[in-house]
Amino acid sequence: MSRGTDFLNMVTEKLRQRILELGDTIQEVQKDIAGMNEYYWENYTEMDQYGYENYDNQQALLAQVNANQENQKKRHRMKKMLDSPFFGSVDFQYEGEEEAETFYIGIGNFAEERGSVPLIYDWRAPVSSLFYDYDKGPASYVAPAGTMEGEILSKWQYKIRGGRMIYEFESDLKIDDDILKQELGANGDVQLKNIVRTIQKEQNAIIRNTKDKILVIQGAAGSGKTSVALHRIAYLLYHDRKNLNSSNILILSPNSVFSDYISHILPELGEENIQEMSFDLFAYRELQGTVADCEDRWHQIEKMLHGQSIQDQERYQWKQSKEYVRAVEGFLVELEDRLIDFRDVKYKGYEKTAEELLEMFYFKFQNVPLLSRVEALMDYFIDEYETLNQRDLSEEELEVVREQFQKMYVTTDLYEIYNWLLEENGWPLLPDLPRERRILDYEDVYPILYLRYRLCAVTAHKNIRHLVIDEMQDYSYLQYVILERMFACNMTILGDRAQTIGEKMQDVLRFLPKIFGKNICKIEMNKSYRNTIEIAKYAESMNGVSGIEYIKRHGKEVEEMQLSTWEDAVEAVLKRVNVSTGVIGRPEVEPYETAAVLTMTEEEARKIYEYLKKKREDVFYIDRDSSNFRKGITVTTFYMAKGLEFDQVFVAGGTQEHPFFRQFRYICATRALHELYIMDIIEDSYLTGDARIR
How much is the pTM? Predict the structure, then answer.
């Protein structure tokens, strides 16, 4: 037997033994909990009058419940480790020592007993950096006791599945290129893969970065930037248990399907899942009291795809720009006089004149936001009255006072105030509608949200201690200004300027330092692991992106077709698609897990889906309301497919004259792992079932 197999057999047996012991412990503690509950209900009426015994019993019960939950988590983690207990090992000889120590590395720590030396080290442990950062020769790692120097005598890589050794080999390099290609070029899973077995040195530096408050990752398509960001979160959680837990982290992701696609990564890495939502959903929740509904970014993209007037484009761009922020600041200076009509306030012999209130408004409370400042005046008035009269006002009395102060506002309606701002800057006004009928166009969502944050006292999201922003290139200047106001926490911001949805690439690194400060750490990830060389070359030809390094994995040539109709395109897909969902594919090719038909617009995607689903059962449609990523054939738009990857990609339609054409083709091409098909449609028509509409 080999060294890896011997160790695997030994550690597997010990894992099974610990799992059995934990099962027994869980059962025993469960009995104790049941007994404590029974004792409590039989005796709580006789417990001491001050409640000390009652409190002690409750605390003891809580401690047992928490202990059992911790044991259940350990057992669950160890059961997962049985499938693949470790994936690497390092023989490291410490400086001054005669013999080397062997460190086995896996998803989590495993020791026979608490406090004993681990048999397997968590991939996030300091010593594990030896595996990721060094080849044979001199090496070091930073431990709690300081920097540990020494020499790596050998490194091994293993693949274990179902508790069985698939392969093991000694490697001079961190990840052998053939193994890397095998791991990253395998058929597309239904979800994003964790990369602990294949983390590269440059990726490891990002994952283990704890010193930079704001880390911005500009990564090429397929560079693993999202995986790296998630592994970084897992690393931070592991190293800062006292101050950081899963509830303190928020991911702003592009859509619910992408959230589902990445949702398993942190649990696989031994952490709980974390909060995820789109920024658009966050904005809608913040504005619910002002409007009935809001469009999201996908509505705006569809408008741009179908063509907007120059005036519409200019208006949208202004509302998302630095110029808009400046316009708001100038508007607020003049708004003070326009918004408030000062009056005397009297209540049961106590009075503040309009002049007194005006002076406090402009001097005492000048740092309070405008729509909260009158409330500050009211609180001051009430405090003085209650202090002088030595009594608290009742709710009914407070309402009488509140009504007098609220009458000073000409309006408190953000929608109306926003219209004043638009009018002042020469832009068309929003329709005059009651709140229950107001639906905001996307171009107005964040401008009104920013106005709200400038006019109202808004509670900072202090519970969020780390924010992850994905697809950074699709956020506007204004959105980043809002994020800076909302979150004062550490951030990981990632994206790819080459995948901007628009006519031009947006490099947010041009303005992020002006918003968040100059101490931003900027990192480029220019090595792509997703596409074959053939697909990568085609993608490069679409938008002229250069400087990207590719894993040398070859595959099928990109197939380009000119087809007469959209119906022909669907038939071409049916002929070439090869996914293993019970439908017979192409017998000469190993079946795939995933395929996608990607279009430019939602209308095109919907009609192709309607046709395809009549031919096959394993066809799924993704739009803004979808929440799951599934095995089979996915039909969606190029902008909904961002962040996802598929074994086969069929790109349908798009005209070269369209301003978005190159971005459309580039984003579609970079979704493909193995096969890419480009289908130009000569006829400008859409499918409706089996009929064509000209």
Answer: 0.87
